[in-house]
Design a protein that fits this description.
single chain; mainly alpha; MetI-like fold; 17 helices; disordered N terminus
Length: 317
């Protein structure tokens, strides 16, 4: 087998008569363009991995990596004995699991609904409006949220009181805040998340729908028996990727939506790292927490990928 493969490779090369140098010379502009993102990945993704050594050092910025004393796992012991870390870990898992349960199905449902719209101009307009929140920063979104849901001056509570009701502490009571946190996140991300599912839906063979129509199937039956089964592999891949982010959280969202009355739930790993690492200058503690967070995320992705393969899906690894 190996001999046959070698002979085949030699034959193709002989017929072609063009080596790698020929293609590099012919398409050098394309390779230069490819070099730019490649260098960005190396600079911003791989080189910073050297900074993980801070988690094992009594790091002092003045002394640098080489001058700082190696202390092994002492930093991790300090982190795992910290009460604040476990509060941040609990809040991170709680908010991300709620995000997954509520936010993950939303783009799938929205993509299916958009696909069922027959009026093209209305469909395009709706898609554009639903995509817009993704491009707003969390500072703007938090500002809008407080303008709408503030206890006394928020437009929603003003409307409720004028109708004879009592004000609702949407953003100042911890349980209400959790609900609003999840719903605002779904509103911000579900429109953008539909892009992948709409692309997958457009790849479904139209003859399947035509055959279902001939058999007398209605819209709901087509969605249940054709659209959802054809989206299954895409949904599983996206679910695996979402599970990898269940230990992670962006700083902007909890930081901008938080206030002193809801810190019991709003203090997540990202805000903990910001507070400990930057404000208190404990860089080794912040690095150790980030390292632990990334490690758990990788493990969850591998486990989810393995489960998907056991179920007969391709997975991502």
């Amino acid at each position: 087998m190996k001999k046959e493969k070698t002979v085949t490779e030699k034959t193709v090369k002989k017929k072609d008569g063009k080596g790698i140098a020929f293609y590099l010379k012919r398409d050098w502009q394309l390779y230069v363009l490819l070099l730019i993102p490649f260098l960005l990945v190396i600079i911003f993704k791989f080189l910073p991995l050297a900074g993980l050594s801070i988690a094992f050092l009594d790091y002092k910025p003045i002394k640098g990596f080489a001058g700082s004393e190696f202390i092994g796992l002492e930093v991790f012991e300090k982190v795992f004995k910290s009460r604040d870390f476990y509060i941040a870990l609990k809040n991170t898992l709680l908010l991300n699991i709620l995000d997954l349960l509520v936010g993950f199905p939303a783009p799938v449902i929205l993509a299916i609904l958009l696909n069922e719209i027959r009026c093209k101009w209305f469909k395009r307009t709706t898609q554009t409006i639903l995509y817009l929140p993704h491009f707003l920063s969390w500072v703007i979104i938090a500002g809008l949220a407080y303008q709408l849901f503030a206890p006394l001056s928020g437009y929603v509570n003003v409307l409720i009181t004028r109708m004879g009701g009592n004000t609702i502490p949407f953003l100042t009571e911890k349980y209400h805040w959790v609900v609003m946190y999840v719903l605002i996140g779904v509103w911000q991300g579900m429109g953008w998340g539909t892009i992948i599912y709409l692309a997958a839906i457009t790849g479904i063979d139209a003859e399947l729908y035509e055959a279902a129509t001939v058999d007398g199937a209605g819209r709901w039956r087509k969605i249940w028996n054709i659209t959802l089964p054809c989206l299954k592999s895409t949904i599983i891949v996206m679910l695996i990727m979402s599970l990898g982010r269940i230990m992670g959280s962006s700083l902007e969202r909890p930081y901008t939506l938080s206030n002193p009355m809801v810190t019991q739930f709003s203090d997540v790993i990202a805000t903990y790292v910001y507070r400990v690492g930057l404000q208190n200058s404990q860089y080794n503690v912040a690095t150790a927490v980030g390292f632990f967070q990334s490690l758990v995320g990788v493990v969850l992705v591998l486990i989810a990928d393995r489960v998907a393969k056991l179920m007969g899906e391709d997975g991502i690894v």
